[in-house]
Amino acid sequence: MGLKEIGFDGKNFAVMAGPCAIESKEQLLETAKAVKNAGAKVLRSSAYKPRTTPNAFQGLGEKGMRILGEVKEETGMIVETEVLDPRHIESIGKIVDIFRVGARNMQNFELLKELAKQEKPVILKNGLSATLGEFLGAGEYLSQHGNESIMMCYRGIRTFETATRFALDIGMVQAIKEKTVYPVIVDSSHSAGKASLVPSISKAALAAGADGLMVEVHPNPEKALSDSKQQLTFLEFESLMHEMKAIASSVGRKI
Amino acid sequence: MGLKEIGFDGKNFAVMAGPCAIESKEQLLETAKAVKNAGAKVLRSSAYKPRTTPNAFQGLGEKGMRILGEVKEETGMIVETEVLDPRHIESIGKIVDIFRVGARNMQNFELLKELAKQEKPVILKNGLSATLGEFLGAGEYLSQHGNESIMMCYRGIRTFETATRFALDIGMVQAIKEKTVYPVIVDSSHSAGKASLVPSISKAALAAGADGLMVEVHPNPEKALSDSKQQLTFLEFESLMHEMKAIASSVGRKI
Amino acid sequence: MGLKEIGFDGKNFAVMAGPCAIESKEQLLETAKAVKNAGAKVLRSSAYKPRTTPNAFQGLGEKGMRILGEVKEETGMIVETEVLDPRHIESIGKIVDIFRVGARNMQNFELLKELAKQEKPVILKNGLSATLGEFLGAGEYLSQHGNESIMMCYRGIRTFETATRFALDIGMVQAIKEKTVYPVIVDSSHSAGKASLVPSISKAALAAGADGLMVEVHPNPEKALSDSKQQLTFLEFESLMHEMKAIASSVGRKI
Amino acid sequence: MGLKEIGFDGKNFAVMAGPCAIESKEQLLETAKAVKNAGAKVLRSSAYKPRTTPNAFQGLGEKGMRILGEVKEETGMIVETEVLDPRHIESIGKIVDIFRVGARNMQNFELLKELAKQEKPVILKNGLSATLGEFLGAGEYLSQHGNESIMMCYRGIRTFETATRFALDIGMVQAIKEKTVYPVIVDSSHSAGKASLVPSISKAALAAGADGLMVEVHPNPEKALSDSKQQLTFLEFESLMHEMKAIASSVGRKI
After folding, report:
1. Whole-angstrom Cα distance, residue B59 to residue B102?
2. Is C122 in contact with C97 (CB distance < 8 Å)?
3. Which parts of chain C sit beneath pLDDT 50?
4. Model confidence over B75-108: pLDDT tens digits?
5. Looking at beta carbons, which residues of chain A come within 8 Å of D50?
6. N or C end: fewer C-beta atoms under 10 angstroms in chain D?
């Protein structure tokens, strides 16, 4: 699968939506159907979770991957997931269409080197305190053997401000585009940290010229096992998609 | 003059444009006419410049204020300018419609206390490393005697990233709006640091829900005495206004 | 009074101690005697306080300055205080030996320009997010008319970390010394944010090569009207001075 | 080997010195002898290097590990090295006494989980933008199966300042000690970024109460294949050790 089939043709604004973590078959399937109906093309979700302490929910792991495989088959969606460990690449690769490298692993170069040998597209998120140069350098690890199916996902940086979870320095969308040919997508959920900021950031990303959006959606955010404050309900997501479609047409994009 | 007359009625997206510094009558008049034609309602410009070293251009001072007075009369535009010193308030107030407090003076509380006694509206920019709480606290200094004609201007914060001059944490637009009744405007020029990023940031601000925009425009940016890399040409500004008008209509705003 | 008389002769480690704010004659006098006994040469204290909101204690102002004048006379100490407003310089200058420019005013250039015309020494604190270049630039505003009695006070910078109040990037002591001939002093109280960290930071500053220290001491920190968590008790200050004297002799300094 | 044998008994100040990267047998052996003579107990060096781009020197890998094994045998020093990949743990563990987790891998939790199963001590460096809570959380991953031989290595954080490479927020030494029983060591080389700042930072770390120091030393820093600006010469290191011994005795420590 190439970048075009995922929805990056220069005109399309590709929306990747789904729960932070895979919690159950029901939760993932229900969410997949909802985001697909609303216009998302790619289902985002994680089975392996990098958490601050070992006591926090670590994801369903292999069981989560089996669920993801089933949901992929039942919905026909393109699916992606985060990969944390070079030793997981083979098994994860049997199920997903796209690998995701999270912010905490942007400079896990041994992981990047292994992913560079795969033939699947990779979403690369910027590190919490990575400079543009370091972000591009990490991209070079992925492309060194010729795989150019890379998506640069800007998810904001850590600063002193606590009103937002991470600073989504919106000027970076254009700054990254000036330095690379890869599509630039924005993760609006992690920078927001709370659901009420997500629509505003998402619409800004579209108007700023991003090629896509990654956003967390959950059937019941309050009961989510991780990121409970920042996930959108189905209704909030539908409403956001509706608003973004209007903006998209005003800037020559399609959703 | 109240916030409504300036263009903040909840529907309008108020554009404030003009040169970083007042350099000559010709430069300011020419720019004022160009930005007015393109749809800007407020002329921005500075006669007193806070510069990193005493050897840098410090602005035309009183002479600049006289020029601003003449240009105001000839164009009929609403004019604003930065005030650095409590001792300048009286003379500046005779000419401008709006006072501006720059990022470096957000916590110059003696200046804020004097401005609080004036009856003119004030644009308050966030400090380079001010938290939301500190930004709101500075606003309280301005409103303590009842003047509620305050515009909160978010101009980004200082971070490690150098690809942008300051990080325009776009989630702050909504975060500020959730905490205050004042209009929120975005300064896209100072966060960008280079002209090529300004349109992207400006459009993002509009889509994010900001009530207005402050942007630097100069007849010949390369020859500007300050901020030469980030000022837009007349043509670039017109083009941006054209794009923003399309987005505005898609989000229920007018420009 | 020149830098040598204050205690900056290249060998001496000059300790400036006293309460955050002047609260009463008794409080200031008691503290002055205690810190003098323990070896401090300069009494630090503030009558004008830059506070985040207008509802916080703003300092005793002119009344505080009268108290400071009396305590100076009764103890014979060298006294300094923060100046916030160009209009206060004349009256404050009648009492203090040293002006202090706080972090929030490092780029209040109109204030710096007025201080440059005075003949008294000035302590210049770095801004919360000032680069070394900007800190040196602010120093140039003070020295532009030939007054070289400047002390560069490094008080840390704002970062994402909340375990300390500000990051006292200790490498900056040497970095500043490599770029200027002025003495470098460290403010350990504001970076610490809590008293338990102050001794560690203070000793580090001495070992790093700083020429002096500014530290907050209060008769009863818990009841202080500002900075209550970070001020040292008399006993804690004496103990710190004792420890610092031992280190000083090991690095060829005197206290 | 336990923490005491490495030199962490509460009184000792343990110095870990050596080149950034293993470049050749001669280079490592020569450096090992020099730092041992000067009083270092642990030899630091890296065979696997996490570099910003794939074109930069990646370290000698397995060949480097063989060299490290030989130098360990010939000098009798305690040796440590950085581990980047869970798949390298077994082979590296056959040679080194201590594993090191670098800043870029502080939240590579899959690596931490594997190291937690080993019986060797681990040096854990804080991430470039890790909070204290996240640093402690990473430590919990290492200790979750009962291995308490952990050294918390504070190497500074990323900020806007470029005069230092990373901000060595010296208050963190005490702040970390208040939250954990593990020894706290400071990496002075990476925060400095240039050799002239290293002695100042190193001495500050000792005076601040750190239990040890990690510092880079190279026979010919200018020709080093990585970190060429910040490594000390043998002479500079000897001089630093001499100065630190004097300070150590004044604060009740031994080197």
Report:
1. 14
2. no
3. none
4. 999 999 999 999 999 999 999 999 999 999 999 9
5. 107, 109
6. N
Note whether C222 contacts A: Cβ–Cβ < 8 A: no
Question: A79 falls in which pLDDT band (50, 70, 90)?
Answer: very high
Give pLDDT tens digits for D22-36.
999 999 999 999 999
What is the structure's pLDDT at B54?
94
Q: How far is CA A169 from CA A191, B133, B187, in A?
A: 10, 20, 13
- For tokens 């206390």, the residue is B113
Please judge whether D158 and B160 are an interchain contact, meaning their C-beta atoms are less than 8 angstroms apart: yes
Please determine, for residue A4, whether its predicted confidence score (pLDDT) is greater than 90.
yes
Question: What value of ipTM does the predicted structure carry?
Answer: 0.97
Helix, strand, or coil here: B81?
Answer: strand
pLDDT(B231) > 90: yes
| CA-based nearest residue to B84, from B128, B63, B114 | B114
In the numeric block, which tokens belong to residue C5? 């008389």
Mean pLDDT (whole number) for B110-120: 96
Q: How far is CA A188 from CA A183, B35, D76, in A?
A: 16, 33, 53
Phi (first) and psi of residue D235, to 5 degrees = -65, -45
pLDDT in tens, D77-92: 999 999 999 999 999 9
Characterize the bridge pairing of strands D42-44 and D78-82. parallel
Q: Interior CA angle at B221 toward B220 and B223, to 5°?
A: 75
**Of A108, A141, A226, which to mutate for an interface test with D (greatest number of D Cβ within 10 Å)?**
A108
Residue whose structure tokens are 């916590």: B107
Give the separation between CA D63 and CA D9, rounded to whole angstroms.
Answer: 34
Q: What angle do CA C152, C157, C162 make, to 5 degrees?
A: 145
Cβ-based neighbour number of residue C45 at 10 Å = 29
Residue C5 burial (CB count, 10 A): 13
Written as six digits, the tokens of D50 are: 């996490």
Q: Is C234 helix (H, G, I), strand (E, B) or coil?
A: helix
The mean pLDDT of D113-124, rounded to a whole number, is 96
To 10 degrees, the CA torsion angle through A228, A229, A235, A238? -100
D88: Cα within 13 Å, side-chain hemisphere: 22
Task: Evaluate whether A178 touches B193 at the Cβ level (below 8 Å).
Answer: no
CB contact under 8 A, B251 and A251: no
The whole-angstrom separation of Cα D103 and Cα D84 is 11
Burial per residue of C224-241, b for 16 or more beta-carbon CB atoms within 10 angstroms, e otherwise? bbbbeebbbbbebbbebb
Taking only the tens place, the pLDDT of each residue in B56-76 is 999 999 999 999 999 999 999
- List chain C residues with CB under 8 Å of B141: 53-54
Helix axes A62-75, A25-38, angle to 10 degrees: 40
Backbone angles phi, psi at D31, to 5 degrees: -65, -40
Sequence-separated (6 or more) residues with CB below 8 Å from residue D60 = D21, D22, D23, D47, D67
Percentage, residues of chain B above pLDDT 70: 100
Best residue of A131, A155, A169 to probe chain B, by most B CBs closer than 10 Å: A169
The whole-angstrom separation of Cα A102 and Cα A155 is: 10
Q: How far is B6 from chain C (nearest CA, A)?
A: 27
d(CA B32, CA A74): 60
Model pTM greater than 0.95?
yes
- Give the closest-approach CA distance of D132 to chain B in angstroms: 19
- 50-89 in B: which are within 8 Å (CB) of A? none
Letter for the amino acid at A109? Answer: F
The pLDDT value given to residue B147:
86
Chain segment D161-195, per-residue pLDDT in tens: 999 999 999 999 999 999 999 999 999 999 999 99
Average pLDDT, chain B: 97
| 3-class secondary-structure state, position B213 | strand
How far, in Å, CA of B172 to CA of B175, rounded?
A: 5
